[in-house]
Design a protein that fits this description.
Strand content: 15-25%
Number of domains: 1
Distance between the termini: 42 Å
Radius of gyration: 20 Å
Number of helices: 3
Largest sheet: 6 strands, mixed
Shape: globular
Order of helices and strands: HEEEEEEEEEEEEEEHEEEEEH
Structural class: mainly beta
Number of strands: 19
Amino acid sequence: MLDVYRRAKVMGVAMVASLAMAGVSWAGPYSQHSNNPGNPFDAPIAAGDPRLTAWASAVFDFAPAPGVGAGFDDPANALGPWDGVTASLGDLFEVGVNEPPDDGTSLLFDDRDPWNGDPNDLGDDYGFLGIDPVGTIIVGFTSPITNRPGPDFAVFENGFSHDFADNPDHLSWIFAELGYVEVSTDGSSFARFAAESAHLESELDTQFGRSFAALAPTGVYNLAGKHIGVRGGWGTPFDLDDLTSDQLVSGGQVDLNQINFVRIVDIVGNGAQLDSNANPIFDTWVGINTGGFDLDAIGVLPEPATLAMCALGVMGCARRRR
């Protein structure tokens, strides 16, 4: 296992992701942004859920988009249990649409050096669509994630509720920064969860502008970041059974009973990236300094046998006390 980890670290960003996401169709609505235990698709996992007995323990690659602010550029923030501290994957600008000003001024909330007006300048801390890659992070675990009945792991981001919306129909919406989720056995071949994002850009709530747009989480499935992380700590669940028909799984490159790595790939939020039905994905953008997906933690749900052993251990302790 250590040899596999070492190889993955050397590989860095030269990873091969499975892009074979055939068109899929589910039958939402999917879960709300927080406590929604009855949802049959993706009921969120609470950070304090006793089933979460393991967490991501090592970072093997961290490649954020340019310009991530100090304090959010430490990949170690993504390790261990949920604590409200995150590693940001950054955000990208679109030339001619929302690029930084070229008049020597800085952007709101931005303490970086003023942009010099050249989107091809890789040293100015500003990333651009089509020029710089989106941010990614790869984490590993002390023991492999295995495929069991129900969700196998949960991803925690720092989205927050739009419970102060002027539109009463949007009080249950969320300010979300979404991300694709991929898994790997060898650190080289990554299978991506097929996902759905069923809303148009015009359907976002832009009460506070496009950079703080809210969306309805009930239209989003298998994308990390659709649940509240700022207050309460709710994670998005992922079930490895969803990957059984993936070409890398059927081809033997990815073993669903030995997942050693999880990769998060940021979604820009302007529709440039697609869901599994070729629909554009929209979320809040463009963020400044701490924009893009913010990974707080990834928790593992153990095998049922492990839970049973834990329960027996607790019962044994109780008997000994008596």
